[in-house]
Amino acid sequence: MTIQMKFNQADILEVKAVMAGIGRSPNPVMSRAINKTLGVTQTFAAKRIYNTLNLTQTRIKKNFSQNKASTTDVRGSLVAKGGPVGLASFTGTKELARGGVSVKVHRSGSRFILKHAFMAKGKGQTETAQHVFERKNYGNRAYRPGFLYATLPDKYRFPLERLTGPRIEDEYAKPTVLNPTMGYADYQLGIQLNSQLDYELSKLR
């Protein structure tokens, strides 16, 4: 999911006219305005998602990236992408002494227990040190809670499934997040453009 940074045409014409009057390119002003807006808009979007998902803002921001503007390419965008977030990343996820894993995915929702799940370090996984896994039934054999499948040869083990929650990209695309974020980006872009124009003119004083 991507938000493109787009200037109001009237604002662009004003900046171009002012910069032309002092014999300078408007591109540095516009590129700095875009890049400042990208930063504050990412924080705004992360806070909106934080209000819904039981994740830290730091974890949410890991799925965001900024395509920054330059003086030769005055375009920028804020992108959210990535796979489903592992349940181990949600705040308070823990393995219970009596078995199972306690998880809370949505901030306003209830905590629930996955009775047959367990936590372990995932081979080749880099999202967190721990992941939540569950062994699935295999053929006609039912899963036996508490049985030490990890001690068996590979061919006798039940297949593992890494359990995940929503994608940050999908949360970002929801109208309750996307619409206010786009409005905030437009508002901030106007403010930052004026601020950067004032900064450029202050160099002449």
Largest beta-sheet details: 3 strands, antiparallel
Binned strand content: 15-25%
Mean pLDDT, as a whole number? 87
Pick out the low-confidence regions: none
Strand arrangement, major sheet: 1-3-2
Q: Write down the secondary-structure element order.
A: EHHHEEEEEEEEHH
Helix content: 25-40%
The total strand number stands at 9
Distance between the termini: 43 Å
Q: What oligomeric arrangement do these chains adopt? A: single chain
Shape: elongated
Instruction: Find the structural class using helix and strand composition.
Output: alpha+beta
Number of helices: 5
Radius of gyration: 24 Å
Provide keyphrases for this structure.
alpha+beta; 205 residues; 15% strand; 3-stranded antiparallel sheet
Spell out the blueprint of helices and strands.
Layout: E1 2-4, H1 9-21, H2 27-50, H3 57-61, E2 64-67, E3 77-80, E4 94-95, E5 101-103, E6 112-114, E7 117-120, E8 131-135, E9 160-162, H4 168-173, H5 175-202
Antiparallel strand pairs: 1-3, 2-3, 4-5, 5-6, 7-8, 8-9
Helix pairs in contact: 2-5
Quick recap of the structure?
With 205 residues, this protein is α+β, with helices and mostly antiparallel strands.
Description:
- The chain is α+β, with helices and mostly antiparallel strands and 205 residues long.
- The protein is built from five helices and nine strands, in the order E-H-H-H-E-E-E-E-E-E-E-E-H-H.
- It has helices at residues 9-21, 27-50, 57-61, 168-173, 175-202, and strands spanning 2-4, 64-67, 77-80, 94-95, 101-103, 112-114, 117-120, 131-135, 160-162.
- It has a three-stranded antiparallel beta sheet. A three-stranded antiparallel beta sheet has the order 4-5-6, with no helix packed on it.
- The longest helix has 28 residues, at 175-202.
- The two termini are 43 Å apart.
